[in-house]
Amino acid sequence: MNDIETEADVALFVERFYARVRQDDELGHIFDDVAHVNWPEHLPRITAFWSTMLLNSGTYAGNPMRAHLDLALKTPLRPEHFDHWLLLFSQTLTDTFSGPRTDEARQRAHGIAAVIQSRLYSTGLLAVDAA
User: Fold this and answer.
1) Cβ partners under 8 Å of residue 27, min gap 6
2) Would you give the DSSP letter of residue 35?
3) % of the chain residues with pLDDT over 70
4) What is the DSSP code (8-state) at residue 127?
5) DSSP bridge partners of 102
6) Domains contained in the chain, CATH given
7) Closest listed residue to residue 3, CA positions, set 95, 106, 102
8) What's the rounded Cα separation, in Å, for the pair 74 and 70?
């Protein structure tokens, strides 16, 4: 398997990953029924995000935190959702690519998920069960 090297590689990964997410029993409804994601608009935007993260393309302009804050106002987001998202992300990477940039994508996804959860928690929007 090749590593992630081009924007076409990023686009392939993003398409495969979100196809998997949409079919997932835990996450699919959040994207389709709650967030009502406009997929023809979202896929190029998220491809630009990951292209900027991994290839330094500079093609992404946006505020991913805002989208997650808005979503958390519509439905409870839990740490388990992020864990499952990361599992699907990692599985899709493993099925599609291999190499240092692939490893970097996995590490960046974990870091991004941690930052988003921290921000949601600090604003009281991360749904955590009291022990």
Assistant:
1) 21, 81, 84, 85, 88
2) S
3) 98
4) -
5) none
6) 10-122 (1.10.490.10)
7) 102
8) 7
